[in-house]
């Protein structure tokens, strides 16, 4: 069975007889094509046409072997889409509402006589449960992050900027075979660590700082994600208390998570511990999200999610406590959810690390 044929039942459920796919992760998953320039057209009668331009034509032919490869030279994507739909007698074509821009929709509406049906990212359903091949890549991606963390500890010194730490993390991961960052590394020191998604800047690390590092890489298209917080020098009592609370919350989730729970139930395990410790209101983001070809994928674990997290899903487990004008702690692992528990892909130590000064 061709990989893109797995999308045909979803196409039929949408009520359309064709689907125009622009999401690059969906295209890669269905065809193997790794570039971000192209459009995939699927038809209910079982055809897949990948449209791109001359710059990527040979790549598309090499990677998307189960698709018809079409060059848009001399025409437009919209006119070529219209031609394909007409050739296959399509009447109703679905398109991804959250990916297609309004300008692209207007151009398609002008070119196509077919009814255009906006749909959510229905194809993400295919990507939620990871295959054995995907798991191999995800494990290696997370392992690369572990290696980078072990090396970066030698660079965490007074006077070093957050930007330099972020650059070194990227360097270490690429030297281990990563093709790049899965997201821009977060390096937040001192009071900046109270901001969950602080942007690394010119602040220089100081003795006594909490230093939070949230980073990941891309390995053969698949993302990793991990966070560790260390103290530069000796931790004070408040820093130690916050750290131990976050670690206790994360450990409880890792011990209790299993397939069949809702995202809200998973999130609630950590949130209850943090609230009971006196830090209610200091954990303002969700506990986690899935990871795959994209760094943020459903399902999600947060206080609102009623979606069932099935066995075979990847999930981050990343509780945190953030205290304004003081600092914050986040600890994050990437796990594979199983029927009766989870497999933790992250191997870096989680006991409080006090990085020696000098």
Can you give a write-up of this model?
This protein is of the alpha+beta class and 358 residues long. It has two domains: 3-127, Creatine Amidinohydrolase, Chain A, domain 1; 132-355, Alpha-Beta Complex (Creatine Amidinohydrolase). It has ten helices and 22 strands. It has helices spanning 8-13, 24-31, 54-63, 77-87, 102-111, 124-127, 132-152, 162-175, 237-256, 263-279, and strands at residues 18-21, 39-43, 47-52, 68-71, 92-96, 115-119, 180-181, 186-189, 210-215, 217-219, 222-223, 226-232, 261-262, 288-290, 297-301, 308-309, 314-317, 320-323, 327-330, 333-337, 342-344, 354-355. It has a six-stranded mixed beta sheet with strand order 4-3-2-1-5-6. Strands 8-9-12-22 form a four-stranded mixed beta sheet, covered by helices on one side. A three-stranded antiparallel beta sheet has the order 7-10-11. A hairpin with a 6-residue loop joins strand 14 and strand 15. The protein is elongated, with a radius of gyration of 23 Å.
Based on the model shown, name its key terms.
358 residues, Creatine Amidinohydrolase, Chain A, domain 1, 10 helices, six-stranded mixed sheet, 2 domains, alpha+beta, Creatine Amidinohydrolase
Please name the fourth-level CATH homologous superfamily of the largest domain.
Creatinase/methionine aminopeptidase superfamily
Sheet/helix structural class: alpha+beta
Give the number of helices: 10
Distance from N terminus to C terminus (CA atoms, Å) equals 60 Å
Name the CATH class of the largest domain.
Answer: Alpha Beta
Total DSSP E strands: 22
How would you sum up the major sheet? Answer: 6 strands, mixed
Gross morphology is elongated
**Overall mean pLDDT score?**
97
Q: Please name the CATH architecture of the largest domain.
A: Alpha-Beta Complex
CATH topology of the largest domain: Creatine Amidinohydrolase
Number of domains: 2
